[in-house]
Amino acid sequence: MRQGTDGQAVIRFRAFGVSLLLAHLLLVGWLTLRPLDVPWMNAANLSPFAGIRADLSLGPAAAFRRIGGGLLLLAPLGVLLPMAGGRLYVSPWLSLARTVAAGSLISLAIELGQTGVPGQVVDVDSLFLNTAGVALAHVLVVPACRARLRRRGGAAGAHAVARRGHEAPQGSIPQVAQSSIPQGSTPTISGVGMAP
């Protein structure tokens, strides 16, 4: 019974993560891919870090706003992508690599989509900032949350197993792990020899 409710909780958690992810992607798409009426536009920036240097030359307040906006635009993906995946037991490095790769591909798709949108300018530095924001959010939030959920799930699972063993109704057969049931010997076919 407990495993069923745990499984349903994981499904609800993943569904919640997927719905938040879709909502965030719709918001990002609306912000970055809608046509803008502007009196003038900058040229596309295809030189790495030229836009960041230009932002830094505007002063601390403007640089913080522009660079921070680039970092924060896709940063929630660093948490929402692993949440939508729903895996608790995964290598932290593999999770980071997958999340950063997905975030950078989404950022690249946005930049490529902006090539045909009036008023939007392609900026290679946005790709770098968006990817850095995804990585930073993932590193700061996901490992701690996974550890906490594993501890909570492990303690709940241990209590459920102990409770099942002590509270089993009379006449019921205790559940045994499938791997501990002997399976018998491997069947052989007569007349077929072993390979050398």
UniProtKB/TrEMBL annotation:
<feature type="transmembrane region" description="Helical">
    <location>
        <begin position="96"/>
        <end position="115"/>
    </location>
</feature>
<feature type="transmembrane region" description="Helical">
    <location>
        <begin position="63"/>
        <end position="84"/>
    </location>
</feature>
<keyword id="KW-1133">Transmembrane helix</keyword>
<dbReference type="InterPro" id="IPR053150">
    <property type="entry name" value="Teicoplanin_resist-assoc"/>
</dbReference>
<feature type="compositionally biased region" description="Polar residues">
    <location>
        <begin position="172"/>
        <end position="189"/>
    </location>
</feature>
<protein>
    <submittedName>
        <fullName>VanZ family protein</fullName>
    </submittedName>
</protein>
<keyword id="KW-0472">Membrane</keyword>
<feature type="domain" description="VanZ-like">
    <location>
        <begin position="22"/>
        <end position="141"/>
    </location>
</feature>
<feature type="transmembrane region" description="Helical">
    <location>
        <begin position="12"/>
        <end position="33"/>
    </location>
</feature>
<feature type="transmembrane region" description="Helical">
    <location>
        <begin position="127"/>
        <end position="145"/>
    </location>
</feature>
<keyword id="KW-0812">Transmembrane</keyword>
<dbReference type="InterPro" id="IPR006976">
    <property type="entry name" value="VanZ-like"/>
</dbReference>
<feature type="region of interest" description="Disordered">
    <location>
        <begin position="158"/>
        <end position="196"/>
    </location>
</feature>
<dbReference type="Pfam" id="PF04892">
    <property type="entry name" value="VanZ"/>
</dbReference>
